[in-house]
Design a protein that fits this description.
484 residues, alpha+beta, 2 domains, 8-stranded antiparallel beta barrel, 17% helix
Amino acid sequence: MNINKTYRAWTALMTALALMLTGCSEDTGSLGVYPQQDAISTSTATFGVLSSDLLNTVVPANSTACFLGKVIDPETDEAITATFAAQFHTFEGYTFPDRENIITDNGFLCDSIEIRLFIRNTFGDKNNPMKVEVWPLSRNEDKLIMESMSFYTNTDLWQYVDESEGPIATKVFTATDYIVSEGQRASKDYLDNVRIVLPRQCGEDIMKTYYDDPNTFRDSYSFIRNVCAGFLFRTVSGTGTMLNLEVCTMNLFFTHKDNEGNTVATNCRFAATPEVIQSTQFENSNLAGLIGNEEYTMLKTPAGICTELVLPIDAIYEGHENDSISRAAITLTRLNNQDEDAQDDAYALGIPQNLLLVRKQNLNTFFEKHQVADNQQSFSTYFFDTYNCYRFDNIGRLISYCQYEKKAGMKAEGKSEAEWEAAHPEWNHVVLVPVSIATAANNMGDGVQVSVNHDLSLCSTKLVRGTEANPIKMQVIYSHFAGK
């Protein structure tokens, strides 16, 4: 039985009935005015919501966000290490100049090749020396990263590495590149980045592969299998810096003659983009020691701790079986860290800025199927800095949906209410998950969600716990026709 489709059909039927009951009258003077017996009245009630911590240490990691580095988590005193793998995208039908027009240097078609890791932001010390190794990913079918694969924060990315020749490059760096002048770094067009020079032979192999068979560059699928499978980046020394990367590019430089015979220096750029796989592997521990406090629950990323809520749906409908839920609002108050002002700004964990509320039973599939908030079984909000809270203004549709699902399920399974709830103990449980949200403008110019992913940055905050003695408050507004 498809509850979703049945629910939508039921909603459409009720809407149609409402239109039929109010749609026809020859007395235009009363158009839009309800008869007295059909006047809508409202009432309000407040209910308590219980909350608890939920360890969520394995989350999907197929994302445009990549992380690299190693830091000590100030809350657990344990190291968090981030390693990432990236494939590269090529434009369909990309072409190099004719081979006879390439100006070779000591027999090399390629002048040089490099990778640039552009930094969105840095956690920790931007002047701390770190060392990274670059390993080629394997093109062998048994180790090749496929487009259909799902990656998680605990996926062992090393299994996809070609270990035959060791790391092809190493780089000692600081997040602030002092080789670049202060004036350049201050430019609005400059973005902090790590430049890693690859062996010239890597670029040579790429160009030779093209001239041997241009068809290998016809699209990213062929490029990854026949030219360059991508690279794994891992920190091998240094602690105290974690990079959140904006984009990773591979730049291949060569020189050629143009149609007028002029000498032209050219940069061929391949980028790690949403069209190909990017994945970060995190190693962290001791999270279990942070949960279970009687005063608060936690939200902690990258992977992590979520907060679980139990919605009092039975209590909400008790005595209101025939009423509609017009609004159900809940506010989750953030508890300030006592030592917040004393923290080193470089190592202060951020506050999760976006929060997803999703049914617990849908938690994994929501991200695996790349869904966005539908305002029925999932909702998103942001951190209200002024009021130090997260607020969901109306999850009434979720409450109505859960109640309908239970009634339909009882009928379909032939069970009493108590039996059905015992068989589905988490039917009214939801989870609060820190997320990163990407939006785009629709035809009307309004922002709409295009992706919702787990927040993989280093964030942590505490929410006032909902207990039996001191529950989180949910305000519910009912509506019903007077006299019915």
